[in-house]
Amino acid sequence: MKPRLLVCDEPVSALDVSVQAQVLNLLADMRTELGLSILFIAHDLAVVRYLCDRLVVLKDGRAVESGTRDEIYGSPRHPYTQALLEAVPRLDPAGERARRAVRQGRRAA
Predict the structure, then answer these.
(1) N-term to C-term CA, the chain
(2) Would you state the pLDDT for residue 7?
(3) What is the mean pLDDT of each run of 10 residues along the chain (109 residues)?
(4) Alpha carbon distance 25, 104 (integer Å)
(5) Cβ atoms within 10 A of the Cβ of 44, count?
(6) How many CA atoms lie within 13 A of 63 on its CB side?
């Protein structure tokens, strides 16, 4: 059997970080080696960013934005997508605020 599509609904959400990495690497290898498409459903934006090339952002069951990983993470258009990305914890909140202010053309507070 040679499936062309694998549906993964929160496949790593209950796993510890080291096991998550192993599963994600396996999925990435399978995608490359088998020419497999993966429909990856997740709430963890770091995991999505690592594995996915294209994204669709859903709000209340409706698609509000779609695009490449770089488009969505680099320049989100929809306010809901922007709010999701802003909610991701940062290691350096002050530095992130300064980078965001520069991207938006204003000075950091």
Answers:
(1) 57
(2) 96
(3) 92 92 95 94 92 96 96 95 87 68 62
(4) 34
(5) 13
(6) 5
pLDDT recorded at residue 71 = 96
Pairing state between β 37-41 and 54-59: unpaired
* Neighbouring-strand partners of residue 67: 55
pLDDT in the model for residue 1: 78
C-alpha 25 chain-centroid distance: 15
Residue closest to 6 by CA, chosen among 43, 46, 48, 34: 34
Distance from C-alpha of 66 to C-alpha of 56, rounded to nearest angstrom: 4
Q: Which CATH architecture has domain 5-78?
A: 3-Layer(aba) Sandwich (3.40)
Residue 71 CA to residue 47 CA, distance in Å, equals: 17
